[in-house]
Amino acid sequence: MTAITAVERDPKKDFFAHAPVRPRCPFYGFVGMAGMLVDNHGNGCGVAGGHRPCAMETAHETPDWNECGRFNYSENRRYIEQALDRCKIFPEELKPNGSISWEGVSLRGWYQLIMRE
Fold first, then answer.
1. How many CB atoms neighbour CB 40 within 10 A?
2. Separation of alpha carbons 24 and 86, rounded Å
3. Lower Cβ count inside 10 Å, N or C end of the chain?
4. Could you read off the pLDDT of 75-96 as tens digits, one per residue?
5. How far is CA 112 from CA 24, 61, 70, 115, in A?
6. pTM of the entire predicted model
7. What's the mean per-residue pLDDT of the chain?
């Protein structure tokens, strides 16, 4: 790597270039339990609780947090903000290779990654 290449690289853009390919919803594909969201390798809705599927997908719509009228509305914002700060999420894409257990990532960090913020 040359000095010019090192200076020109933007780590944030590089990180987003290799971001997971999932629907534009940080809760899609997860189930919630005890303050954590665990990857269920399916269409779970991490906000709905239990093992419920994504309501948008069930309605034959493309899952998109910005368009989710079921959970993304102003009266629910406080709950979502608390979850972003308190919850850990365990996306399979970010699990270290060969590890049996890991710490997960913050839900806010995952949100920013999936929503490209």
1. 15
2. 21
3. N
4. 999 999 999 999 999 999 899 9
5. 11, 22, 20, 5
6. 0.80
7. 85
